[in-house]
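Figure S7 source data.
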Amino acid sequence: MGKLGSVAAVAGGIGLVALALAGWTRQPAVQGGASVTGKVKFTGKAPANPVIDMTEEPKCKAKYTAPAREQIVEVNPNGTLADVFVYVKSGLPASYKAPAPTGPVTLDQDGCRYHPHVFGILVGQTLAIKNSDGILHNIKAKGTKNRPFNISQPTTMTSERTFTASEVMVPLECNVHGWMHAWVGVLPHPFFGVSGTDGSYAIRGLPPGTYTIEAWHEKYGTQTATVTVTGSETKTGDFSFAAK
Ligand SMILES: [Cu+2]
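Tokens for the predicted copper (II) ion complex:
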């Protein structure tokens, strides 16, 4: 306590004593206030996603007014690309420790499709796999760093699993319905986002540093960018994928 005492004496401020004690008694949280946000653009002509034949599953078919399609290349009306997983690939200090997950991530099987189609999860965070269809689904995870799993869900129910290792991405599929595919990015930190229906993503709460940000798309592969952030600033990191 000798060092703390001298700091307090020099500063002579109660606030600083409290701050020093907080820092001394437990590991300081290495979270920050910086953000990286951006858009994922798309150029060229998007291929049409295959139409799903749901005749064998009338319960699922009844959930659509137009024929359902697979969700492989989702180009938004504003010319951006959805379902791109954008994440911090490297640059975090070795001492970084992620906060405990605040709750489960839910993957829903509804209308014989996965919702969401692309998502992220923390190592150790609960994945709640929900069957909202009330028909047989069989979800299979085919990771290489994570132990694969295979769960039969014959009716409306929820199963829980966790992932033990970082892996971008773990493919998920249904053994009953060949068109059902989803992708999960498993990370040891919460610095990831998925481009949505306006093509934008956001990664928030970054500590200061220089990061390699990777954007992953199931058909168009990966792209990387390097971004340096300090304090509570927001930097822009745009990506652009082109039709093949
Ligand atoms: Cu299924």
